[in-house]
Design brief:
With 159 residues, this protein is α/β, with parallel strands linked by helices. It is 30% helix and 28% strand. One of its GO terms (cellular component) is cytosol.
C-alpha cells in the first residue's frame, strides 16, 4: 500500500496494525487442534489405515448424530433409518443422515473425518431392529434395539 504515518520524531514509518480478536475461524481452528484424533481402522485384508479426524465436543458439533445406512438397497434398513431419523428429530436431535449409495468404508471414513459425537449405523441386523451406536470420543460401540436408541442417547449424554 505504501501508506506511512509520522512517528513522534516526525519520521515517516509504515503503518503496522495488529488484530487480536478471537473470531469464528480462530476458534474453530483451536477446537480442531485440541480435539483432533488419529483413527485406526483395520481393513478386511488385515491392513491398517490411519486418518486424522475431528472429534467435535457435543456443544460445538454441527449435528448431534450421524445416522448411516450401510446398504441403501435393503428396504428394511432404509425403513428403519427413516423411522430412527424421525424419532431422533422429534426428540430434538440434529441428525445428519448418510443414505448415499456408497461403500460402507467410504461412509465410515467420512464419518470419522466429520467428527460428530455419535454415529448410529443401520446395518445387517436391521431386520431384527438392532443398530450400532458408536461414541466418537471413546471409540466404543454398542448394539442397541432401535426402540431404545433415545434412552441410550440420554444415558450417554449424562456421562
Amino acid at each position: 500500500m505504501g501508506a506511512d504515518v509520522l512517528d513522534e520524531n516526525g519520521r515517516a514509518v509504515p503503518i503496522i496494525m495488529g488484530c487480536y480478536g478471537i473470531g469464528v475461524s480462530r476458534l474453530l481452528s483451536a477446537v480442531m487442534e485440541q480435539h483432533a484424533r488419529l483413527f485406526v481402522n483395520k481393513t478386511p485384508k488385515g491392513e491398517y489405515r490411519y486418518a486424522w479426524g475431528i472429534n467435535f465436543p457435543k456443544e460445538l458439533a454441527p449435528f448431534d448424530v450421524h445416522l448411516i445406512t450401510v446398504n441403501v438397497k435393503d428396504e428394511e434398513a432404509q425403513a428403519l433409518t427413516e423411522k430412527l431419523e424421525a424419532s431422533l428429530m422429534g426428540a430434538g436431535y440434529e441428525v445428519l443422515t448418510d443414505d448415499r449409495n456408497e461403500r460402507v468404508g467410504v461412509k465410515f471414513s467420512d464419518s470419522d473425518l466429520i467428527g460428530l459425537p455419535i454415529r448410529i449405523t443401520v446395518g445387517k441386523k436391521a431386520a431384527d431392529g438392532i443398530v450400532e451406536v458408536k461414541i466418537k470420543a471413546t471409540g466404543d460401540t454398542i448394539e442397541v434395539h432401535a426402540d431404545n436408541v433415545l434412552e441410550t442417547l440420554e444415558i450417554l449424554s449424562k456421562k
